[in-house]
Amino acid sequence: MEHFAQRILLLSGWRRAALSLALGALTVLTQAPFHLFAVGFLTVPVLVWLLDGAVGATPGKAIGALRSAFWIGWLFGLGYFTAGIWWLANALLVEAPEFAWAIPLAVLGLPAVLALFYGAACALARLVWSDGFGRIAALAAAFGLAEWARSFVLTGFPWNAIGYALMPSPIMMQSVMIGGIFAMSAFAVLVFALPAQLAARRGAAFAGAVLCVLLVGAHAGFGVWRLSQAPDPSAAVEDAPVIRLVQPAIAQEQKMDQEARAATFQTLLDLTALDAVPADASAVDGEAQAGTAASGPLPDIVVWPETSVPYLLTRDAVALASIGETLQSGQVLLTGAVREEPGEEEGSVTGRYYNSVMAVTTAGVIAGAADKVHLVPFGEYLPFADILGAIGLRAIADADRGYSAAPARATITLEGGLTVLPLVCYESIFPHHAVPPHGQRVDAIVNVTNDAWFGRTPGPWQHLHQTRLRAVETGLPLIRVANNGISAIVDPFGRMIARIGHDVRAAADAPLPPPAPVLVQEGQRKINFWLFLGFLSAIAIIARARLRAFGIN
C-alpha cells in the first residue's frame, strides 16, 4: 500500500489532473440511486495522497502548495458535480429551441462553480497539513465547512452533500439528528479518508484501521439502537389521519400544453375519487383504476404535486367547484398551484405569482396557503432581470413574468388541528427550511415537487433521498408527492410507509405516522456541528504545530 501511495503522491501534470477528475466522478456512486458508499473508502484516500503530493514549485513557498491543493480539489469537485447533476440539462430540453444553448452551462458551468467549494476546502486543509491523522482531520473539517457554505452562498445549492453518501438506509440515517447533514459531511470525509493511513508505518496503519471500524460501527450501532426504540412502521396508529398520495405522471410537455389542461386536471380528479388504494404502488404500471383498490378507510387528506393544477384557483371558480365535488365529506386537498396576487389597479400587469401549496375544502374554498420562499435561480426567477431580460432571457419555469418569493415561511393548519409545513420542490434539501417557523408546533412536513423536468435520470432518486433526511433530522413524518415520482410517506426514522414508483400513474393511501421524540433540538444540532468542526480543527492544528516544532514546513 505504501508503494501505491508513493506512486499517487508523485503524479504530476495531466495524470494528476485526470486522476483528480476521475476520483470525483467515481465518488458520485456513493449517492442515490446507487448508494455504493464503500466507493468512498477507495476514492477519498487517493485524494488524500494526491494532496500529500501538493507542493510548491519553489521549496519553502507555501503558496504553490495551496495552489496545487486547490486545483486538485477543484478537479475532484468538477468530476463529482458533473457526474452528479448532469441531468439538469434534461430540463433545458423540454423547450429545446429556446434553452438548448444553455446546456453546457448546466452540465459544466454549474459544476465548475460548485467545485470551487471543494477546491477551497482542499486548499484550507493544506494550510494545516501534516503527515498523519492530523491531515485527515483537517480535510474532514474543511469539507464540512465547504458543505455548510454551499447551503447559502449565491442563494445556496447543497445538492448531493457528501454526508448523504454515508446514509444509504434508515439504520445509517439516524446519526444525522446529532449534528445535521453538514456535520455528517465532515464525518463522512473523516471515515472515508482513514484508509489513507494504511500507507503509513505499521502502528499508524493499524490505529487508522481500528478507528475507521469503530467510527463506522458507532454510526451504524446508533442507528440500530434508535430503530429499536421506534414503533413498528406497520402498526396501526389510533386516530391517525389517512393520507392519499396522488401521482399523475404527466409528461412535462403535456403539463405546459394549454390544450391538454382539461385532461391533466381530470387525471388528478380521477385519482382523487378512487376508493381506498394500496400503500405501495411501486410495481403498478399505467393508470390506477377504481375497482382494483385494496379495502381500507378513505383518505382524510389528499395531496397533489407541485403546480399540478393547470388553472389559477384564485380566479377559477369552476376548477375549485370541481375539486369540492370530487372530495368526499370531511376530506381536504393539499395541492401545489400557482397563486396570483393581482396588481392594485384594474388591468395592472404588476401582479405577482407565487409557487404555492393550497388547502381546498369540500366546499370548493381555499382554506389556507403557503408560498415558496426559496426560489430556483434561472428556473423560477431571473437574476439581474433588468439586464438579462433586456436581451431576451427568461426563467425556465416562470409564471408569466416569473415567480416571487414569499417573505417568510408559513404553515397550514387544516380542519381538525393538523398543522403541516410545506416545502416546495428543492426547498427540502435545505435543512433550515424544515425547521418550523417561530417555534410553531408542526405535525408533518409536506414536500410537493415536479421532478418530471429531469426525466428518468438520477435526479428524482437523489431528491427523494435528501428529502428523507429532513424527516430524521426533525423527528417529523414526511409526505412527499412528485408529479412523476418518487412519491412517498416517510416516518420520522426515514422508513417509507407508502411509495409510488417512478413514472407510475397511481394513488397510494397510508396513515400518517406520528412525530418522534427528538433527541437533539435544531439549535443544539448547530452547536454540535461547530463543536465537531472545532474538535477536528484542533487536532489538525496541533499535529501541524508538532511538525513545525521539528522544523518541518
How much helical structure, as a percent, in the residues?
A: 40-55%
One letter per element, helices H and strands E, the order comes to HHHHHHHHHHEHHEHEEEHEEEHEEEEH
Radius of gyration: 25 Å
The outline comes out as: globular
Task: Give the total of domains.
Answer: 2
Number of helices: 16
CATH architecture field of the largest domain: 4-Layer Sandwich
Distance between the termini: 25 Å
* CATH structural class of the largest domain: Alpha Beta
Beta percentage is 5-15%
Give the total of beta strands. 12
How would you describe this structure to a colleague?
The protein has two domains: 2-229 and 522-549, no CATH class; 242-511, Nitrilase/N-carbamoyl-D-aminoacid amidohydrolase (4-Layer Sandwich). It is built from 16 helices and twelve strands. 42% of the residues lie in helices and 12% in strands. A hairpin with a 5-residue loop joins β6 (412-413) and β7 (419-424). α2 (13-27) crosses α4 (62-85). It has 553 residues and is α/β, with parallel strands linked by helices. The longest helix has 28 residues, at 522-549. It has a six-stranded mixed sheet with strand order 5-4-3-2-1-12. It has helices at residues 2-9, 13-27, 40-52, 62-85, 89-93, 96-99, 103-127, 133-149, 176-193, 202-228, 252-255, 261-273, 317-326, 385-390, 458-474, 522-549, and strands at 242-247, 301-303, 332-341, 352-361, 366-371, 412-413, 419-424, 444-449, 478-482, 487-490, 496-500, 506-511.
